[in-house]
Amino acid sequence: MIDVQHKQTPFQVCLNREWVTVQQPMTVAALLLSKNTLATRVAVSGATRFAVCGMGVCQECRVTVDDQPHQLACQVWCKEGMVIETGGANASD
Q: Does 77 map to a domain?
């Protein structure tokens, strides 16, 4: 559980091989949105996918976190040193 009551010190996470600063407690999906990375994966049809429901039901926001595939970006809180890879790394609409 993340304590959102207290301001935390900014920290770094690696997003698609680039280190970025996280200024406040947020989920991986919120980080992706803040960095205009609007593709968590690419469907078989070639269409890019991103978080739809924001509560873990739709499964569209699956990313790899610290070498663990199929993590739900809307449910995982950013932590210092975390490595995040999206399947749609080159897609940002």
A: yes
Contacts of 21 (CB under 8 A, 6+ apart): 10, 11, 12
Q: For the domain that residue 47 is a member of, what is the CATH number? A: 3.10.20
What confidence tens digit (pLDDT) does each residue in 19-64 have?
999 999 999 999 999 999 999 988 889 999 999 998 989 999 999 9
3-state helix, strand, coil in the chain (%, to 5): 10, 30, 60
Q: What is the DSSP letter of 30?
A: H
Contact present, 50 and 28 (Cβ < 8 Å): no
pTM above 0.90, yes or no: no
- Give the domain range for residue 53: 26-85
